[in-house]
């Protein structure tokens, strides 16, 4: 069966090459017919599990469509070539072809298809390269934004934001600092050193703000509330209380936020952080509101600590009803040993 399919594929390639030849009576290659034959050859190779040859046939098909100025079909062929590489576990090469296809879709005037291709590429590469996935999601969001498709753009930015939080990029740029961190990292962690000081959430903070602005523009206010929570968590992990407080204050202008469950929780969280009240912070961070957010943000909530990592010492407060009793006890103590 496989041998039959391989022979069939070679027959189609021979026909394609014949269509590309010119002669005295045929001045131009027949790119359209050749592309059709290469596509049939690619399918035959694919059915015979000859993925490398299938990839090559799809690339030949794409080349023919490009020469024929049929950019949409060329992009489709490039995507198929990428899928063959994906099946061969050659993911970086696969993504390169899909990115090239997305560029062709834009040139062809079909940006929606370009954005969807980039989204698919992001999903493919996400398990092996979070950095590249972030880049692809951001590219796709940019394409949708240029087309005023803000809902789709915001959804893709949301994927990028979550991955940026997961990445927790280290703000290390010099070889010396990198070496020092690698040497002392286990010691610092075991001693309870706050490693968040080395972690960059800058990109996540910027991405979340842009995402929130888009949801606000399309009047999806409940989602804005959730983005405010995510912003506060990210900013507190950056040890930037002022920026976290600013995120909440800016959200007061969003209809329905002031007095909402989300608003009250964030006010309590900021108060706990500012006053170093570990108990209150634990109550807020373990509340259903935060525990059932997207997994990456829920993990931020659970791992959040007050500055210094300890409980605030609470000043003793005497209940009003016990004032008299306390004074009486003090008088008894004063004369308990007699007058002398």
UniProtKB/TrEMBL annotation:
It is found in: Membrane. Residues 329-340 have a biased composition (Acidic residues). It holds the Pfam family SNAP. The chain crosses the membrane at residues 176-199. InterPro entries: NSF_attach, TPR-like_helical_dom_sf. One of its GO terms (biological process) is vesicle-mediated transport. Residues 308-340 are annotated as: Disordered. GO terms for molecular function: soluble NSF attachment protein activity; syntaxin binding. It is a peripheral membrane protein. The keyword Transmembrane helix applies. The keyword Transport applies. One of its GO terms (cellular component) is SNARE complex. Keywords: ER-Golgi transport, Membrane, Protein transport, Transmembrane, Transmembrane helix, Transport. Required for vesicular transport between the endoplasmic reticulum and the Golgi apparatus. Belongs to the SNAP family. PANTHER family: GAMMA-SOLUBLE NSF ATTACHMENT PROTEIN, SOLUBLE NSF ATTACHMENT PROTEIN SNAP. This is Gamma-soluble NSF attachment protein. It comes from Scleropages formosus. The gene is NAPG.
